[in-house]
Specification:
- It is built from six helices and five strands; from the N terminus they run H-E-H-E-E-H-H-H-E-E-H.
- The chain is of the alpha+beta class.
- The chain has one domain: CBS-domain.
- The strands form two sheets. A three-stranded mixed beta sheet has the order 1-2-3.
Length: about 160
C-alpha cells in the first residue's frame, strides 16, 4: 500500500485591515511607472508597451498630465495601416503620440476612496486612472491606479 501524498495547505492571508471604503487611492497607487512624451511617435510607444508589457502609457510634459495612450488606440492605428488601400506600416513612425492620445484623460485624486475609484473605472470603462494633484501649470501626475492595483488591495495579494 502506498503512502498518500500530502499536499501543503495554502494559508490564507488575513483580510485587509482597512475596509475598501476607507482605503485611499494614495495607499495603493503606483508611484513608479513608465510615461511617454507627446513628442514621441506611435512606433516608439508600441515598442515601449511591448517591452514593458503595458496596456496604457501616460503622456506627460514636464510632470504635467497631458494625455493617455492605450494599447487599443495603437491597435486601431496598426490595423488601419494593414489595410490594402493604406500606406505601409512604416507610416506608424510618422504619427505622433500627440495625434492619437486621449488629450482629456479621466483622472482621480489621491484622497479618493478605493470604492470611488472602482466605481469610476467601471462607469467609464477604462483600465487605469492617472492620479493627479493641482499644480501651477496644470494637473501634476503623482501616481497611476490600475484595475490590478484595486484587485491586489481587495485581496491583499
Amino acid at each position: 500500500m502506498q503512502t498518500p501524498i500530502r499536499m501543503p495547505v495554502e494559508k490564507r492571508k488575513a483580510p485587509p485591515t482597512a475596509a475598501p471604503q476607507r482605503q485611499r487611492v494614495r495607499d495603493v497607487m503606483r508611484r513608479n511607472f513608465i510615461t511617454i512624451s507627446r513628442e514621441e511617435n506611435l512606433l516608439e510607444a508600441l515598442q515601449l508597451m511591448r517591452l514593458a508589457r503595458l496596456r496604457h502609457l501616460v503622456v506627460v510634459n514636464e510632470g504635467v498630465l497631458v494625455g493617455i495612450l492605450s494599447y487599443r488606440d495603437l491597435q486601431d492605428e496598426l490595423i488601419a495601416c494593414l489595410d490594402p488601400g493604406s500606406p505601409d506600416a512604416s507610416a506608424v513612425e510618422q504619427i505622433g503620440v500627440v495625434d492619437r492620445m486621449s488629450s482629456s484623460p479621466f483622472s482621480i485624486v489621491p484622497d479618493a476612496t478605493l470604492s470611488e475609484a472602482a466605481s469610476r473605472l467601471d462607469r467609464l470603462h477604462v483600465g487605469c486612472l492617472p492620479v493627479v494633484e493641482p499644480g501651477e501649470q496644470g494637473l501634476r501626475l503623482v501616481g497611476l491606479l490600475t484595475e490590478m492595483d484595486l484587485l491586489r488591495a481587495a485581496y491583499s495579494v
